[in-house]
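Protein folding task:
====================
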Amino acid sequence: MQKMDGMTYAPISLKNRDKVVKENDFRFSVIGLDHGHIFAMTNGLLEAGATIVAVYDEDKRKLDEFLQRYPQAGIASSIESILDDPSIQLIASAIIPSKRSILGIKALKSGKHFFSDKPGMLTLEEVSQVEMVCKSTHKRYFIYFGERIHVEGALYTQQLIEQGKLGRILSVTILAPHRLNKASRPNWFFNPKENGGILIDIGSHQLEQFLTYTGAEEVEILHSSVANYNNPEHPEFFDFGHCTLLADNGAVCYFRVDWFTPDGLGAWGDGRVFVVGTKGTIEIRKYLDIAQSETGDQVYFVDGIGEHHIETQGIIGYPFFGDLILDCLHNTEKAITQAHTLQVMRLAIKAQNKALIIYPTK
């Protein structure tokens, strides 16, 4: 499992977990291979027992790459052939972000659940449209927030919070650098009309974690700003952003996102999360322990008893995907609620829309 390029980072669970369904009990297909996160999404679904039926993309090269990993998938002749297949229960997609809500709404209206790469929507209007169609069809629109659901250190921290080990959560600080790998990025990646901008794109991950860890429902964006520090050939692209938040329960958050991972780092980003509660504090070192260990999912926890270092890789797995399948089958909301998912995207879009643009001086 490579960790140098976040675009194709696809975790594989090291924890043996019983599949939640038998073969063909939950069938899904894939439409749109524009972002490599589709491999992580597909891995998670297959590990939980889902059966892949077919894949569609207009790009033969992308199709060939997908089929090398998942040869059991058939090639669909068109998007419509997947939408019209009554045996398919969910469509997973990493199509260009500007096309995700359009495809997702078609999927919902065809009687299927939809699992989108992040960001799932780019405008507040799209969020409202998705919300309306979810209500009318009684189908779910999931988004792949991989920086929590595919990070065991983040999931372990969530468990400690839910068990009350940290007390009331007061503050969350998130540092989320990413490696740009500029030469491998498609043109749409640098166009905010197609990709949304840095606070909508990777900022949505951080907002999702803040809402999850604090239990907040409403959040005020106190400040957000973005900048293009090092990519003048893409003048509309922002390679740096940060945001300060205040939740309805009094918790605060600061997060920073950027595309400045140094070439010497052994992972696509040195992702860190710091949580302060009334009874304890936590630091998560997500993808490696810099200059100490290539193993990620390191949790440093301090409480009233003492100091604790927990290596969480392989002890939790990735239960989100099994819970997603069961939510679709049983009309439950264990994996993630629809309201939570939509609120994350609303906040990310608002943060991007109101962001102060920093114009660097030479």
About this structure: The first strand starts at residue 27 and ends at 33. DSSP finds twelve helices and 15 strands in the chain. The chain has a mean pLDDT of 96. Residues 148-318+349-358 form a domain with the Dihydrodipicolinate Reductase; domain 2 fold (CATH 3.30.360.10).
